[in-house]
Amino acid sequence: MCDEKAVMQRVKLAKGSENSQEAAKYYLEAAQMLVELSEKTPEKDGEFMDMANKLYLKGKKLKEKKTILKTTKKSAKITFDSIGGLHELKEEIRFKIIEPFKSPELFEYYGKSIGGGILMYGPPGCGKSLVAKATANEANMAFFHVKSSDLKSKFVGETEKNIAELFEKARENQPAIIFFDEFESIGGERSEAAAHEKNFVAQLLTEMDGMDSKDQKILLLAATNEPWSVDSALRREGRFGKTLFVPQPDFEARSQIFELEMAKRPTEEINFMKLAEMTKGFSGADIKSICEHATNIPLKESLVTKKKRKISMKDMNTAVKETDSIVKQWYAKAKRQVEMKHMGEFFPDLIQRAREVEPILL
Length: 362
Ligand SMILES: Nc1ncnc2c1ncn2[C@@H]1O[C@H](COP(=O)(O)OP(=O)(O)OP(=O)(O)O)[C@@H](O)[C@H]1O
Ligand SMILES: [Mg+2]
Description:
Bound molecules: adenosine-5'-triphosphate, magnesium ion
CATH class of the largest domain: Alpha Beta
Strand content: 5-15%
Mean pLDDT: 84
Number of strands: 5
Order of helices and strands: HHHHHEHEHHEHEEHHHHHH
């Protein structure tokens, strides 16, 4: 049920709540209902949205823990060594993010400015988020992992506030890295965005331009599957001046990912080279799912037979045959988009890789 009465009931419940989290929940529910109501009753749109905004802010204030701003706990395991391949990307991050903060005087001596950002792009499941997590562990800095869609709010002005708050928090904790995952959802092309969404990019630009000053030690990492959707102003030098392609793993990396994944499971002798050869064009996530699938075969048997059997190469072969890669659809779409928008010069690696994989994948 979604009418004014229901909204008032939520507000009443919120006011009568004994704990703040419960009250926050009711306020946010009421705000959500008002948004729906405003969509249904255009003549009262302004009034409902105003009220929704107020209730939303109230609810949000009560939520002591702001989920979007939590600093990720540094996971003990993931470092650059646990990532197969991607040598160039790791080197670039080392040079641009990790080393400048370890040896600032050396970088200053050579007249290098510290800061700016790196935008990673590429097919899904190929290690962008993984690299960001590893960076947090390698660089001893505060790390803000932001799913861009979490910054977004339906309420006018609220997303900009979230962005400003995030940078504020990072400045308080500097040196810090902010990692924007799914970057296209807030850094999208302004010409294609809804009116109020254009301000997100403007706000990002304002924050980023303020980062030049010497006393600010904030670095930005972003990841996207849709680089062609990212606003071009964000891709300029000093902002996300460096765009790095994160391709699907090569032969060596595939074999390494198989090895890393299977190391924690009971196996007979596995021919990792052979597996790498069979999985040309597969993503890291595809390989992970092959390993899961292969593991399930003897596990399910054991549940019936009550006897333990190790994972065999035959299980691995079966799993490869039954797993389809998600990478090929991505390349087809990416190539179409980049060509349609005449952006080939910005993403040369993508076009080249798409050509390389076409005969294998399509
Ligand atoms: N190079 C790699 N080395 C080791 N594991 C990898 C590698 N690439 C991908 N993986 C595995 O695949 C999983 C998915 O990777 P990740 O989440 O980093 O992909 P992504 O590029 O961020 O994808 P998306 O664009 O969908 O967010 C990882 O958790 C990891 O297990
Ligand atoms: Mg990711």
